[in-house]
């Protein structure tokens, strides 16, 4: 009985420690990453601006703030259930927060709403939401390293490769999925790798991937069997040269 109590207490302590680590990691990201830090400062600036609101608008403004806050919680709860990744939830949560903040600011003074619109536009131009940084069991590859692995008969039979770019919001939103899948499904037959088209954009067409139209085809996932493409998602880019099979001559 005493062992069970000790084990239960240990598990609770481990859970609390993980929660503390999660909070510390979140605070560290807010302070160190420009994207989160700038948004934090922008939202925090509402407080001193709010304190200077005229008395005759204060009561009406408070009612609208409560309504906006409740609406924000409702939309956030819906997104928390539907979104698969933390990055996607944060992106949607920040979007809703900006909309509601600007809407509330219109009641205070239209110039304040314009000010926040300008601030959020500047943040959008200066900073990008960071992607999930961990790779799981996936390997970060250059196009030439990928070619070498696919042509090497001593490697695993299947390679699932994610082609992405950190400048693509879709890639950022889904950046956590591939590493987690690699941890679950990596084995002696299947290996995982990633290629960043933000670093190697000129090789995209060689893999039949279009970077036009806001990188709508990213991320692209291609399954190779013994160096030959057997499946991909999304569909093949018909204007590009076929990528089968992978060879050094073809890569050059």
TrEMBL record:
Highest taxon of source: Eukaryota
Alphabetically ordered keywords of this record: Membrane, Transmembrane, Transmembrane helix
Transmembrane residue ranges: 26-46, 89-108, 114-132
The keyword Transmembrane helix appears for this protein: yes
Protein name according to UniProt: Thioredoxin domain-containing protein
Organism name: Capsella rubella
């Amino acid at each position: 009985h005493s062992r069970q109590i000790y084990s239960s207490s240990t598990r609770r302590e481990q859970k609390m420690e993980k929660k503390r680590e999660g909070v510390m990691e979140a605070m560290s990201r807010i302070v160190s990453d420009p994207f989160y830090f700038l948004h934090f400062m922008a939202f925090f600036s509402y407080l001193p601006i709010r304190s200077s609101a005229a008395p005759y608008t204060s009561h009406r403004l408070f009612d609208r703030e409560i309504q906006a806050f409740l609406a924000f919680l409702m939309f956030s709860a819906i997104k928390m259930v539907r979104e698969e990744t933390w990055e996607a939830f944060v992106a949607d949560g920040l979007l809703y927060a900006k909309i509601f903040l600007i809407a509330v600011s219109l009641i205070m003074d239209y110039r304040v709403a314009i000010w926040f619109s300008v601030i959020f536009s500047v943040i959008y131009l200066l900073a990008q939401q960071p992607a999930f940084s961990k790779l799981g069991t996936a390997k970060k590859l250059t196009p030439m390293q990928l070619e070498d692995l696919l042509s090497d008969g001593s490697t695993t039979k299947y390679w699932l490769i994610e082609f992405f770019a950190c400048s693509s919001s879709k890639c950022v939103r889904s950046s956590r999925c591939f590493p987690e899948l690699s941890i679950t499904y990596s084995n002696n037959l299947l290996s995982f790798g990633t290629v960043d088209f933000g670093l190697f954009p000129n090789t995209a067409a060689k893999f039949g991937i279009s970077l036009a139209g806001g990188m709508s085809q990213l991320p692209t996932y291609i399954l190779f069997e013994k160096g030959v493409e057997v499946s991909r998602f999304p569909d093949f880019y018909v204007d590009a040269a076929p990528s089968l099979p992978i060879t050094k001559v073809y890569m050059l």
